[in-house]
Amino acid sequence: MNYETTTIDADGRLLTDGTPPPPSRRRRWVIAGVVVLLGALLAWYLLRPKPAEVDPLKGEGARATQVPSISVAVPGRDTVRTIISGTGSLAARREMPIGVVGEGGLVTRVLVEPGSWVRAGQVLATVDRSVQAQTAESLAAQVRVARADAEIAESELRRAQQLVDRGFISKADVERRTATRDAARARVAVAEATLGETRARNRRLDIRAPADGLVLTRAVEPGQIVGAGQAVLFRIAMNGQMEMRAQLAESDLARVRTGAPAEVTPVGSTTAVKGEVWQVSPVIDPQSRQGIARIALPYSESLRPGGFASAQIVAGAAVAPQLPESAVLSDGQGNFVYVVDAKDQVQRRAVRIGEVSDGGVSIASGLDGTERVVLSAGGFLAPGQKVKPTLVKIER
To answer: Looking at the whole model, is its pTM more than 0.70?
Structure first.
C-alpha cells in the first residue's frame, strides 16, 4: 500500500511528498534586514571620525591646560571711612528777621535786593522823616538858646565876683547869680538830651542791618506804610552762613558726633560743599524715628535756603583691607573669600564684613591684607583646587 505524505507550507498550501517547499516570505524579509544591518555597520566603520593621535610627550601639557586661570589681588590695608548718608533741606544757620524799630511811616527808598551783601548798620530802607526833621531843628534851636542864656549867666557871675570885694554887691547877689548860671547850664543839658533823643528816634526810622550778612528776602517797596510791630520786612543770613538739616535714622544719628566732617551736594549741582556737623538733635521724632544733624556750611552760590540736598557724613575711620564686592561670597556658613596659597591652590577663608561703600567692602577680620585674594569667579572654585593666578591691581 502506498502512502502519500502531505505537508502544509507557511502560506497554508498543501505540499505533496517529494516536492521541495518554496522559500517563505518571512524568511526573505529576515535576510533583507540582515543585509541592511551589515551595510549600515560597514558605512559607519568607513565614515567614523578617526581619533587624534596623542603624543605621550605632551600629556602633561594637555593636563596643564585644564588648570583655570584666575585674577587675584593683594588688598593691603587702607584707611576706610565710615560714611553715613542723609538727605535734608538747606537753611540759613542764623537767620535774622528785620522789621520796623522806630515809629515807622512812609517808605521812601529800598536800597538792597535779595542776594545783596550788607554790613552791620547799613541802611536797607529809608522812611520819610520830614516832620521829624523839623522837630529836630526846633530842638537844636532851643539848645542854642539855652547855651546863650548860660553864657550870659556865666558873664554876670564873673562881674559880680569882681564887685563883691569892693562892696558894691553883696554876697547874696553873687549866690543868686551863681544859681542862675547853674540853672542855665542845666537847661542846656536838658535841651541837648532832648535833641539827642529826637535824632536817635529819627535814625531808627531807617531800617538798618543788625549785622553783616546776606539778604535772603525783601518784603517792602517804596510808598509802603510801615509801622512798629509790622511783619518782617527783610531776612538776612548772618555772615552768609548756611546749614543743612540732614534727617538721619535713629541708629545712624547715634554714631554722628559734633565736629564730624561732611560733604553736602545740593540737588541740581555736582559740586560738593565741605562743612562739619555743629549740632546733633537731642530729640528723635516718635513717628518717623529720625533725628536731625545740622551741618554748618560756608557761603556758596549753589546753596539756596529751602532747597534739597544730600550729605555724606564721616562718622569714623579704620585701617583694614578693602575688596571689590565680587570677591566676597556668602553661604549658609557666613561670608568668606577664596585665597591662593603658595602652592597655587584655592583655600576658603571666613571673613567678617565691615563698611560697604562705593569703593568696595572693608574686611573687619579674617584677612591681614597680604593674602592673594580671588577677585571674581569664586563661585566656580572649590577648596584645594589648583589654579593659575594672575596678579592684578585693585582700582580704588
So the answer is: no
